[in-house]
Amino acid sequence: MSARLDQLDLRPSVGLAARVAASAQVTTSRMSPDIDEWLAAKRRQPFENTLIPLDELTEPGGWLFAPGTGNLEHYSGRFFSVEGLHVRANHGRVREWSQPILVQRDIAILGIIAKEFDGVLHFLLQAKMEPGNLGLVQLSPTVQATSSNYTQVHRGRRAAYVEYFTEPGRGRVVVDILQSEQGAWFHLKRNRNVVVEVTEDVPEHEDFCWLTLGQIRRLLRQPNVINMDARTALGFLPFTGPDGGEVLGAAPWEVGDPAGLHSMTEILSWFTGRKSEYELATRLVPLDSVTGWHRDAYRISPRHEGVHGGNFSIVGVRVHADTREVHSWKQPLLAPHGLGLAGLVVRRIRGRLHALVRAEALPGYRDTVEIGPTVRFMMTDYPGTPPDHRPEYLDYLLSAPEGVVRYDVVQSEEGGRFHHAETRYLVVEAGEEFPLQVPPDFAWITVEQLLALQRHSYYLGIEARTLLLCLNSL
């Protein structure tokens, strides 16, 4: 989508933020179905999602293990591929390794249509079946599609409502930001997060519903309902800060200087310093050359537990869903070996809520380092990880008493590329006894400052962005 200046929302950001805040207070709407019953009915549809041998993927018009590399690719050369990645680092206990990684060069649209009804801002979400979803159907953006999808490389139907994001003049663009996804599993992946506000009538569709932000916030307190792509797109809306101050729409260096523990200039200097400190030399290599991994009939997996970067496998699935643009297909998925944890410590400093975040270097990031939560960890690794090798603050988060836990919900990651990938999103509020002095990779940043940074590409990783939205849902 190419936005013209006359499409951009140039109204004062405080006006939009106030409308977003008003929508967040409305928890019922005549425009919405009984969302729990509606979603349950969508999940009862006759979908198929069956794990299959990898060789069943390789059929005419489907996938193939490319001669000479062993890379798992689609015959069209589009969608995505499974390739090998070789990594050398100047930090950490393991300085060199190789692993499979998902390579998707298409930039996907994660687009949400917004519209006012009865003076309240609503958002059009889709009950979308994805083969890797827990419960199969979750609420996704209005449009969640790669360019391969919406240009119909799959020879299926055109994605509903995609014209609102590909044709100029269909609405006012209020959010339009390129952001990364999981840097441990994707190579240089990025998506276009777009929110377009319209005033015209929008055609109805049985698999879509209008929800207020208040209704969406309630659903964020339930596991596996609001999918990852909806969470990331919604997270860019101009929320007012937790202390009532409007922060979005300003440049990062204009926000938070007087009230935060650190000025925005200091934060940007810290972030630049961490990016300068860490080196990750990465190169794509043939999948057949990845050491420490093997392929059997059903999966590509690490030869033994503890292989660095080896907390997942590559599997194949056969899918049938009449609600999708193509009714039947087969594809590979990345299947994590258990539950992930994304934990965030927050604390009041000078009366303002700060989050303890970490500069995290991952091999799939475009610029090596992005800001992540306090802790990101695969819990299946916990029993075999000695206490002195565990991430800083992991045990603090896991042992936090119930009274200081502000958010604790398991959410799914992207079901179109991952099979049953779940992350426990945990927010713990620390008291004044928690130290302000933290290791060099960590920084205390106000929620307002994080919201401002989020409006720019490649500052906050996907887990930090989800946690920020969940924190705003409280």
From TrEMBL:
Identify the InterPro entries for this entry. EvaA-like (IPR005212), EvaA-like_sf (IPR038153)
- The UniProt record lists the dTDP-4-dehydro-6-deoxy-alpha-D-glucopyranose 2,3-dehydratase domain at 34-235, 265-471
The chain's coiled-coil residues are none
MF annotations from Gene Ontology: lyase activity
Instruction: Specify the protein name.
Output: NDP-hexose 2,3-dehydratase
Native source organism of the sequence:
Sphaerisporangium melleum
